């Protein structure tokens, strides 16, 4: 290779790596990160004696299909309601569910079912169950073989008590 050629190669390398670097910084500042798999935190975990539930976030958002055979939308799980309409769209900030579903009654989902609508919706475990469970139920109804669990033990194991 001639000297001129080598300088050209170096020049391009510097320019291209510079551009990649800048775009990575821009993306990094805007995009909110999320792990491919999330262990869902719940403040009542210790009281109720269940281990954290696992959500395969990436698979849910990119691979799995809903009951209509469509890819699941971010907005099926993330929302900001304005006068009853979900105005959240992809790219908007995602707040933790507990930010809004911050009920303090510390109830199991089955007990939360007995609350008044306005109080029920505030309970965190209820919000999770309603979201996870309703979709799994709908998916199972059209495809019995789908691995969208409805049984308690498939989503959370009991914490083993020390004897
Ligand atoms: C099946 C439901 C579901 C789908 C679909 C889904 N998410 Fe999530 N996502 C969650 C849950 C649950 C959390 C954890 C929230 C918490 O900890 O309270 C989460 C967390 C996040 C977080 C991290 C928030 C934080 O704690 O900082 C981001 C960002 C996010 N999701 C973006 C997306 C985007 C973008 C899509 C679509 C490509 C998407 N999600 C699809 C359920 C879902
Ligand atoms: C910015 C506040 C906010 C955040 C964050 C939020 N919610 Fe909600 N959520 C609401 C409000 C307000 C309602 C009641 C809407 C109505 O009156 O119908 C609601 C309703 C619900 C409902 C019942 C109606 C429906 O949309 O199906 C479920 C289930 C639910 N939320 C689950 C979740 C889950 C799971 C998360 C986290 C991934 C979450 N929410 C995050 C505010 C929020
Ligand atoms: C909008 C629909 C939808 C919602 C909401 C949803 N799921 Fe799922 N889930 C699915 C589908 C579809 C499958 C996979 C079915 C298959 O592959 O056969 C699945 C599979 C699973 C599995 C088994 C496979 C795996 O990836 O681990 C678990 C566990 C699970 N979901 C947990 C959850 C939890 C926890 C939530 C609530 C935070 C949730 N899901 C919310 C549709 C949904
Ligand atoms: C599709 C997944 C899924 C299924 C099926 C499911 N749960 Fe849950 N459950 C969750 C998630 C997610 C939470 C909130 C985060 C956590 O506690 O791990 C939760 C929370 C709870 C809580 C609140 C206590 C705590 O751990 O903070 C109780 C109690 C509970 N579930 C009982 C049940 C029972 C009983 C069944 C069976 C009838 C069941 N769940 C089925 C996903 C599921």
Q: Which key phrases capture this entry?
A:
single chain; 163 residues; mainly alpha; Cytochrome C3; 2 domains; two-stranded antiparallel ribbon; two-stranded antiparallel sheet; 8 helices; globular; binds heme C
Task: Give an overview of the whole structure.
With 163 residues, the protein is mainly alpha-helical. The protein folds into 2 domains: 31 residues; 122 residues, Cytochrome C3, CATH 3.90.10. Helices cover 45% and strands 6% of the residues. The strands form 2 sheets. It has a two-stranded antiparallel sheet. Strands 3-4 form a two-stranded antiparallel ribbon. β3 and β4 form a beta hairpin. The chain is globular. The chain starts with a helix and ends in an 8-residue tail after the last helix. About 6% of the residues have low confidence. The chain binds heme C (4 copies). The site of one heme C has 19 residues, from β1, α3 and α4. The site of one heme C (HEC) has 22 residues, from α2, α7 and α8.
Helix count from the secondary structure assignment:
8
The gross shape turns out to be globular
**CATH topology descriptor of the largest domain:** Cytochrome C3
Give the averaged pLDDT, no decimals. 82
Instruction: Provide the low-confidence segments as ranges.
Output: 20-29
Largest sheet: 2 strands, antiparallel
**CATH architecture descriptor text of the largest domain:** Alpha-Beta Complex
Termini gap: 74 Å
Classification by helices and strands: mainly alpha
N to C succession of SSEs: HEHEHEEHHHHH
Helix coverage percent of residues? 40-55%
- Proportion of residues in extended strands: 5-15%
Supply the number of structural domains: 2
Strand element count: 4
CATH top level of the largest domain is Alpha Beta
